[in-house]
């Protein structure tokens, strides 16, 4: 821990300014990887709207049949998947970044979309062969829910579990921001000393926040993504708490309005209305300075140097060391 704080300190106090090299082959390779894999994983606002629209379609409906088109999607053997058929949907909920369909008899279908997984709804019962990206079909008496995954990596998953304890065991444990007061938020944030980026996206600490919304939250709070949690003042923690709730609330409202009564179709981590995420080089909507980035492993973090880091562009050796120690290494960790 002491070494962690030291390396953070040298970044924060050293004031090293060096332009991010964007033209080296390594960087452009990293950028291409980011463009493909960057946290497009649906986060709390997207999942909230998914659940609301699903509820309108399948609550109290009977799940008639499950068609598994890719056997690797299902990660549980007991109870057998066939036991879910014929049961009525009794509740829908989000568990971290997972979608949970509760069935009568205490069975739960747990869908983890990961990065490229999506849900589609089809009211018509057309007999077109499913597209290659469709991993499973859930046929209800009201229509069919398709679980799809783009790309070639198979990371999306389906679990069928029996009973509340088995469901609870799948919860990464992060707090729900809208159910948490400032003290709870502060206690969780200060439980370990990490960069703010790592802390916000850690599913064991906070539920439903990933790469995209953490960028937006930190920009709203005017805090550096590499600031260490234990270095924050009480005022800064209050600002971060308020920004987290504001940003997520605004995006839930925005996505609800965009989706209307339909089913969400454009579920993406890149949206024009975002202030900094996915907007490298574009002007910050608050101050007009170009949005900056930190590319590391499979993730890109975006921030405004003028609004968040006192004008410092974050790129030096100390930063590299810090990224290795206290940064979300891969999107898999953001589950
Ligand atoms: Zn700015």
Layout of helices and strands, plus pairs?
Blueprint: H1 2-14, H2 25-37, H3 44-58, E1 63-68, E2 89-95, E3 98-103, E4 107-112, E5 117-122, E6 134-140, E7 143-149, E8 157-162, H4 164-168, H5 182-189, H6 196-201, H7 211-221, H8 234-259, E9 292-296, E10 299-303, H9 305-308, H10 317-325
The structure holds zinc ion.
Zinc ion is lined by residues 284, 286-287, 289, 304, 306-307.
Structure overview:
This protein folds into two domains: 2-37 and 175-334, Orthogonal Bundle (Helicase, Ruva Protein, domain 3), CATH 1.10.8.50; 47-168, Alpha-Beta Barrel (N-terminal domain of MutM-like DNA repair proteins), CATH 3.20.190. It has helices at 2-14, 25-37, 44-58, 164-168, 182-189, 196-201, 211-221, 234-259, 305-308, 317-325; strands at 63-68, 89-95, 98-103, 107-112, 117-122, 134-140, 143-149, 157-162, 292-296, 299-303. The chain has 335 residues and is α+β, with helices and mostly antiparallel strands. The chain is elongated. It starts with a helix and ends in a 10-residue tail after the last helix. Residues 1-39 have low confidence and may be disordered. A four-stranded antiparallel sheet has the order 1-6-7-5, with helices on one face. The chain contains ten helices and ten strands. The structure holds zinc ion (ZN).
């Amino acid at each position: 821990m002491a070494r962690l704080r030291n390396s953070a300190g040298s970044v924060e106090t050293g004031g090293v300014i060096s332009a991010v090299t964007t033209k080296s082959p390594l960087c452009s390779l990293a950028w291409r990887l980011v463009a493909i894999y960057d946290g497009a994983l649906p986060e709390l606002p997207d999942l909230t709207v998914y659940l609301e629209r699903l509820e309108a379609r399948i609550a109290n409906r009977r799940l008639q049949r499950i068609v598994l088109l890719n056997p690797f999607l299902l990660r549980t053997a007991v109870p057998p998947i066939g036991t879910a058929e014929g049961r009525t949907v009794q509740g829908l909920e989000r568990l971290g970044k997972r979608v949970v369909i509760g069935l009568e008899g205490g069975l739960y279908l747990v869908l983890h979309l990961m990065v490229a997984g999506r849900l589609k709804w089809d009211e018509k019962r057309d007999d077109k062969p499913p597209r290659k990206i469709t991993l499973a079909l859930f046929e209800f008496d009201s229509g069919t829910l398709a679980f799809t995954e783009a790309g070639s990596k198979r990371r999306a998953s389906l679990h069928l579990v029996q009973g509340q304890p088995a469901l609870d065991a799948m919860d990464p444990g992060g707090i729900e921001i809208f159910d948490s007061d400032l003290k709870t938020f502060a206690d969780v944030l200060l439980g370990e000393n990490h960069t703010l980026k790592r802390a916000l996206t850690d599913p064991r600490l906070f539920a439903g926040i990933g790469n995209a919304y953490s960028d937006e939250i930190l920009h709203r709070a005017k805090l550096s993504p590499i600031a260490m949690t234990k270095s924050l003042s009480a005022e800064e923690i209050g600002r971060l708490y308020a920004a987290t709730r504001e940003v997520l609330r605004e995006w839930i409202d925005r996505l609800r309005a965009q989706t209307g009564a339909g089913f969400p179709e454009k579920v993406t981590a890149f949206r024009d209305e975002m202030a900094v995420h996915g907007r490298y080089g574009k002007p910050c909507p608050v101050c007009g300075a170009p949005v900056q980035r930190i590319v590391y492993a499979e993730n890109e973090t975006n921030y405004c140097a003028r609004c968040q880091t006192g004008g410092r562009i974050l790129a030096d050796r100390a930063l590299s060391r810090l990224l290795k120690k206290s940064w979300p290494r891969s999107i898999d960790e953001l589950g």
